[in-house]
Amino acid sequence: MRLAGRIVCLTGLVVATVARGVDATTFAKNCTVSPLGEGIDDTPQVLAAIEECGHDGLTTFTPGAYNITNKMTWDLQNSRVDLHGFLTFPPDIDFWLNANNTYRVIFIQSQASWFVITGENFTVDAHNTGGINGNGQPWWSFFANRTRDDGDGRPVALTLSNVTHGRISNFQIQAQPFWCNAVADSVDVVYDGMLCNATNSDPAGFGTNIVPNTDGIDTYRSDRVTMVNWDITCGDDCLAIKGNSTNLIAQNITCHGGNGIAFGSLGQYVGLNDLVINVTMNDVKTLRINSTIQPNMQSGAYFKSWTGTVNGVPPVNGGGGGGLVQNVTLSNFFLDQVDVPTLISQNNSGHAGDAPSTLEFSNITWSNWTGTSTGATLVELTCSSAAPCPNMFFENFNVTVPSDATPAFTCSNVINEEGLPSAACGNSSSS
What's the structural domain count of the chain? Predict the structure, then answer.
């Protein structure tokens, strides 16, 4: 037995692992950590426990608040973490905005991370009693009257980077300052049970969206990512599927406020192709919340790419990249007062006269959609003349418009649309 702060470590048992995470109860090493108390830095003892038991071991965090004052990486190999408490990141905005105090492991838009998990064959289970407290409210209020740019240093709450066979279960992230989750350069990752809650309580921001960029997750350069049983309250994308995300599954997703499910933005980096292939989403709800607190509820699902012209450089600007979005199935969506239920837009941050995007959207199916829209437009497919959209399929698309409106559909550069009213898109190559 070794005592280090509040860490208790035991050795001598046999490790057992299972694919897509570790769920066994016998390990070569066991560490138990308890919070040191208000105002005391828990970062050293947390890192010491992970160093001791993060490989071939079980690390148990007892309930309570763990004060994390510095960036932190967990390298987990054939191991399990039971996180019954909250890793609490103080809202020292100037400190975290200093690039020396965060990681840059997410290539897309050079995003910052303060907590990174990497490794293989692990499970982190927060048992619906623990997770991360991002103390986002001071961040949201601070930026209410300041310019926000991608890559400006606001940290992602939880980042998975270079993970193979990892599982995050029953996890809560309260008040994320920026994106709630990101997964990058990873394969075979399961998120089963994720709650992200970015709810503004500052009356000065009521009626406006002062919590933008609080995406539930952004996926990037990752294969075989599964997201089930998610509950997201945010002011931006509930799920954002970015470049080179393949073989994704999302099921039982509830989005409170924000912009809905996003595919993109894509094609931001000239010379780089973004591929999004084989995505299945099922049982998704996008629900408008109290508009006096947060007014956004944009879409059920939408697709966006940059134009074919390069306008500046990332992370803020860009364009000119190509790629392909193919084989996407969106089933059993329920929408509550969304602005435009679904759309494809290929002119993100574009200008008049820009070259059309060369990124193609193809073989997309919308199946069993119900609910309500706040406006007349139900479907807006604005595809590129340089890369028309083939095979847009609608099955039982029954979203309703207000009683005083006539349903409207927009299609341009669409090849072989099926399932919308015959007069909507004409079921032809373009309209």
Answer: 1
Respond yes or no: is residue 215 known to be catalytic.
Answer: no
> Which is catalytic among the residues 192, 236, 237, 274?
236
Q: Which strands form 111-113's sheet, in the order they lie side by side?
A: 103-106, 111-113, 155-156
Q: Give the domain CATH number at 237.
A: 2.160.20.10
Segments of the chain with pLDDT less than 50:
1-5, 10-20, 427-431
What residue numbers bound the domain in which 123 lies? Answer: 2-355+372-381
Can you read off the two tokens belonging to residue 264?
């993109």
The answer as to whether 427 is a domain residue is no
Question: What are the C-alpha distances in Å from 23 to residues 58, 67, 80, 262?
Answer: 10, 27, 7, 32
Q: Each residue of 141-176: b (16+ CB within 10 Å) or e?
A: bbbbeeeeebebbbbbbbbbbbbebbbbbbbbbbbb
Q: What CA–CA distance (Å, rounded) separates 261 from 324? A: 18
Place of tokens 């820009």: 354
Q: Is 285 a domain residue?
A: yes
Q: What is d(CA 294, CA 74) in angstroms, rounded to the nearest whole number?
A: 34
Beta strand pairing status for 187-197 and 218-220?
Answer: unpaired
* pLDDT tens string 109-121: 999 999 999 999 9
363 falls within a domain: no
